[in-house]
Each structure stands twice: as structure tokens, then as C-alpha cells.
Target: Cytochrome c oxidase assembly protein subunit 15
Amino acid sequence: MSLRPAWLTFRRYAAATTAMTLSLFALGVYTAATGSGLACQAQWPLCSDQLIPALTINPDFIEWFHRVWAMITGFLIIGVAGWAWRGGFDRRTRLAATLAVAILPFQITVGAITVTVGGLVPGGYTVSTHAAHLIVALCIFTLLTLATVWGGDRGASPRLLRAAVGIALVGVLASAVFSRAVRFVTYSPGAQAAFYIAGLAAHLGLIVAMVGATAGVRGERTDIDASTARTVRTLAAGSMAALVTTLLLGRDLVLYDGFWQQVNLVALGAALALALGAAWVLRSAESVSGTPTPVGGD
Model:
């Protein structure tokens, strides 16, 4: 007899873990933007010679809370991989979940190096470690999203595909509000966290759209136009590449002058235009057929 409640499916658990990872990403950006990453007297895993600092809102607490949230999320990620193997899921689901766990130690190590300027590794608070920390986090988030989509009883349905493109569009638009490329608002620590929440939501939507479109390209359903699916997949992939560029430029990985602001603005515009193109292609396909375009499973 299983002790797991009936409502707790693998896909729901993996989706919750993905959401935790998204929030951890935003929390990490906020921690770095406020300078709290340099708190805790540059110690890791201790914080100012304590295991648990004073529970008041200050740089030490922000950095410590980020570490605790990361630890909880890490155990959840390990749980996704364990469930994928014990649950007998297909090879691609197990591979995505396992890779997320495999690169997790590297992410933890880079995180420790990043916050130990005068601790374990002198000079750890550098552009290269920030870049590595950001890119590996994005890889883990992407792998968890894939494990979530592939690990369900159903494939990428037409409704899910349309919703995914819609989420991508809303996410790109929302990220533009907080982006340092557009400057609607001051690029404060809070705005930076909001930018990454919106951008990662868009990234998630584009991944799901690509998975759903790929199912159509492979002919997993005979009542989908493979050409339409291929176009949607290409547009979603292009939008994702442009979006990742804006996510990287959202951090201080380069000297952000007028040139890089223009590059950022072009990338943001391309992400939005390509996502709009994918939505338009789907809409046009539905108008021609008179019914929603089926993609993936039932």
C-alpha cells in the first residue's frame, strides 16, 4: 500500500520542483543585486560564524535564506530523479531528471565559490563565477521542465501547446516591463527578480511549445500538419535563443553600455516577435482546419 496521496503524481511533483527552482533563481538574483551575496563574512556553509544568523531582514539573513531555499530545492530535484527511475518512466524523462542531479554539485560548488571572496576561494565574486552560476541554473531549470512535460500520462495536448505559447508571450511582455533594455522602471533588486520570474516563465512556455511541436513533426499524431508543427518549433526555438540572451544581459556579465543596451533591446524584440509568430501560425492552422490543431498525446 502506497503512502503517497493519490493527487501527488510525478508530473505535479516535478512541476512543483520546477517552480521552486524558478523562485530560487529569482531569489539568487535578488540576493546578488542587494549585495547580500557578500554577507555572512564571506563564509560558507556558516554565516558570520553561525549556522543560523539572526532572523531579521538584513544581508546575512537574505544570503542565509537563499542557501536554505537552495538546499530544499536540491533535495526536491534529487527526488525527481529518484521517482523517475523507480516509477519506470521512459528514457528521456529519466535522462532529463538524472542530468539535473548530475550538474547540481557543480552548481553548489560555484555558488560556494561565488560568496567566498575572502573565505574558501579568494576572488570568488567574479564575472566568470556569476556567469557559470547563472548558466548552470538555467540548464537545471530547463531539464526539470522537460522531465515535467515528458513524465506525465498524457503528451503535449493542443490545449497545452496553445497555453504554452500564450505563457511565453505574456512572460516576454512582462519581462520587458522590468528589463534594463526598456527602462520602464528602475532596475532595482526587486525589478531584477521580477524580470527573471517573467523571463523564466516565458522560457518554460517556449520549452513546452517546442516539445509539443516536436511531437507533431515526428508524426505521433496523424491529424497534425507536420509543416505547421515544424514552423512552430523553429519560431519557439528562435524566441528561446533571443530570450536567453536577454536573461544573460540582465546580469552584470558585460560592461552594460549603450551598445549592449541596443543588443538587449533587439534580442527582447526578437523574442517577442518570434513568439507572436508561433501564436499566429497556430491560430492560422486552427482557422483553416476549423478545429484546434492536435499535437502530442490525447
